[in-house]
């Protein structure tokens, strides 16, 4: 029985993780759950999974202490949960920079992490890498592109990989030119053509910040230089990503847009038990595969991500922090869609570079990037 702690239990990935866990009651025991605001849903989960021993709630003080032995509130609740229960695997599906600390804590304790929280690697890849080496622990990717690459890597040797090819759908606005992005609305940006996800990652897909994050994520997950990480536009999202080997063979992983597949693979690797899908991929009906070369002028955030990733240090934390704040302001209708990109570019330009950052340096960089974006748009008093 694998004992699981799930962060971000009430979110898009969190709920799909619960679905996977409920299909394998003899393999998994859910012992911990955390969320931001949604106490009601945490209660429902605790009732559905009586094995829960610890609960964490960040942004809501509602009394749910009657639900289990330990309930933690406030900023450090996720780390406290990890310190007060006996678990085997952390599933980190919280959104944002706040996911970095619990990732580090779990690895520090010698426990592997199934990782959806890509911010852990974008902002803190340097520290996560050191901790993985020190404690001999592992990360199992949940992000669909990285799960695909992880699966394709089973076919060959790492030394014989020529390049990783990450596919990009192009997000909600892929058929628009940059000029046509001037006045797009929040509602338009939130309707992703292929995937149903949380708000932040849906906006990040439209700006291609998400693909930039995924390039950095791939660099740390698979320990390959940026020169060996490519992206390609692939509108259908049927191929989730590919690995090209030195003998010219390209391995691709295909599937329908259902995150339960990568979640289950991360939790049960290397096993592939039956996974009920409402829409399994029917090759005879759905298989049209289009590819286009990536357009870095159309998607400047992807280009910036490569630069930020290569320089390393604290710049990933700045890139992520500025994006988190800018997306929040866009969703609140305080800035426009294109101003998300401008926020990030200016914040990265203004950042004080720290080559070998500590966690405290990254926390400071994250905070400064957010404050920079608010100041840049003159929104201090709102
Ligand atoms: P959602 O917005 O759907 O869920 C976010 C989760 O984080 C919720 O459980 C939310 O709790 C919790 N949360 C929000 N604020 C806080 C806080 N202050 N403290 C603690 N918890 C908080 O996001 P997704 O599920 O879409 O994404 C989660 C992560 O997975 C992200 O890093 C994303 O990039 C990554 N990912 C997501 C994919 C997807 O298909 N959705 C695909 C690949 C990666 P509450 O609702 O109670 O506030
Ligand atoms: Mg992805």
From TrEMBL:
Catalytic reaction list: 2-C-methyl-D-erythritol 4-phosphate + NADP(+) = 1-deoxy-D-xylulose 5-phosphate + NADPH + H(+)
In the record, the note on similarity to other proteins reads: Belongs to the DXR family.
Native organism = Faecalicoccus pleomorphus
User: Which enzyme class, named as a word?
Assistant: oxidoreductase
Q: Identify the residues that the record assigns to the 1-deoxy-D-xylulose 5-phosphate reductoisomerase N-terminal domain, covering every copy.
A: 4-125
At which positions is Mn(2+) bound?
143, 145, 214
User: What does the record give as its pathway?
Assistant: Isoprenoid biosynthesis; isopentenyl diphosphate biosynthesis via DXP pathway; isopentenyl diphosphate from 1-deoxy-D-xylulose 5-phosphate: step 1/6
Q: Does the keyword Isomerase apply?
A: yes
Boundaries of each DXP reductoisomerase C-terminal domain copy? Answer: 254-371
Which segments constitute the 1-deoxy-D-xylulose 5-phosphate reductoisomerase C-terminal domain?
Answer: 139-222
Record's protein name: 1-deoxy-D-xylulose 5-phosphate reductoisomerase
GO MF, one annotated term: 1-deoxy-D-xylulose-5-phosphate reductoisomerase activity
User: Which GO biological-process labels does this protein carry?
Assistant: isopentenyl diphosphate biosynthetic process, methylerythritol 4-phosphate pathway involved in terpenoid biosynthetic process
Question: What EC number(s) is this enzyme filed under?
Answer: 1.1.1.267
Query: What cofactor does this one take?
Result: Mg(2+); Mn(2+)
Q: Which PANTHER family match?
A: 1-DEOXY-D-XYLULOSE 5-PHOSPHATE REDUCTOISOMERASE (PTHR30525), 1-DEOXY-D-XYLULOSE 5-PHOSPHATE REDUCTOISOMERASE, CHLOROPLASTIC (PTHR30525:SF0)
Alphabetized UniProt keyword annotations: Isomerase, Isoprene biosynthesis, Magnesium, Manganese, Metal-binding, NADP, Oxidoreductase
Positions contributing to 1-deoxy-D-xylulose 5-phosphate binding: 118, 144-145, 169, 192, 205, 210-211, 214
Q: Gene that codes for this? A: dxr
What Pfam families does the entry give?
Answer: DXP_redisom_C, DXP_reductoisom, DXPR_C
Question: What does it do?
Answer: Catalyzes the NADPH-dependent rearrangement and reduction of 1-deoxy-D-xylulose-5-phosphate (DXP) to 2-C-methyl-D-erythritol 4-phosphate (MEP).
Question: Where NADPH is bound, by residue?
Answer: 10-13, 36, 38, 117, 119, 198
């Amino acid at each position: 029985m694998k004992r699981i702690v799930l962060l971000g239990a009430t979110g898009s990935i969190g709920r799909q993780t619960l679905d996977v866990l409920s299909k394998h009651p003899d393999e998994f025991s859910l012992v911990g759950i955390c969320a931001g605001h949604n106490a009601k849903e945490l209660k429902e989960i605790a009732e559905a999974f009586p094995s829960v021993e610890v609960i964490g709630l960040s942004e809501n003080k509602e009394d749910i202490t009657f639900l289990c032995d330990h309930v933690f509130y406030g900023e450090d609740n996720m780390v406290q949960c990890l310190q007060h229960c006996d678990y085997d695997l952390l599933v980190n599906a919280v959104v944002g920079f706040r996911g970095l600390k619990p990732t580090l804590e779990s690895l520090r304790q010698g426990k592997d992490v199934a990782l959806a929280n890509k911010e852990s690697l974008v902002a803190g890849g340097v520290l996560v890498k050191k901790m993985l080496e020190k404690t001999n622990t592992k990360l199992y990717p949940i992000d669909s592109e990285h799960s695909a690459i992880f699966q394709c890597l089973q076919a060959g040797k790492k030394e014989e990989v020529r390049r990783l090819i990450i596919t990009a759908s192009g997000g909600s606005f892929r058929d628009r030119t940059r000029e046509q992005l001037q006045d797009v609305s929040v509602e338009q940006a939130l309707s992703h053509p292929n995937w149903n996800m949380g708000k932040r990652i849906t906006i990040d897909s439209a700006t291609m910040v998400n693909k930039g994050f995924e390039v950095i994520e791939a660099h740390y997950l698979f320990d390959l230089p940026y020169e060996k990480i490519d992206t390609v536009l692939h509108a259908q999202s049927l191929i989730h990503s590919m690995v090209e080997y030195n003998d010219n063979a390209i391995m691709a992983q295909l599937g329908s847009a259902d995150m339960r597949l990568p979640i289950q693979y991360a939790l049960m690797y290397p096993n592939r038990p039956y996974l009920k899908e409402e829409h399994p991929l029917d090759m005879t009906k759905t298989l049209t595969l289009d590819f286009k070369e990536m357009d870095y002028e159309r998607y400047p955030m992807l280009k910036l991500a490569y630069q930020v990733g290569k320089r390393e240090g604290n710049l990933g934390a700045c890139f992520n922090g500025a994006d988190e704040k800018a997306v929040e302001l866009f969703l609140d209708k305080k800035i426009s869609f294109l101003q998300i990109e401008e926020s990030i570019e200016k914040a990265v330009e203004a950042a004080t570079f720290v080559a070998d950052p500590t966690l405290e340096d990254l926390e400071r960089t994250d905070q400064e990037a957010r404050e920079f974006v608010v100041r840049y748009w003159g929104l201090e008093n709102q």
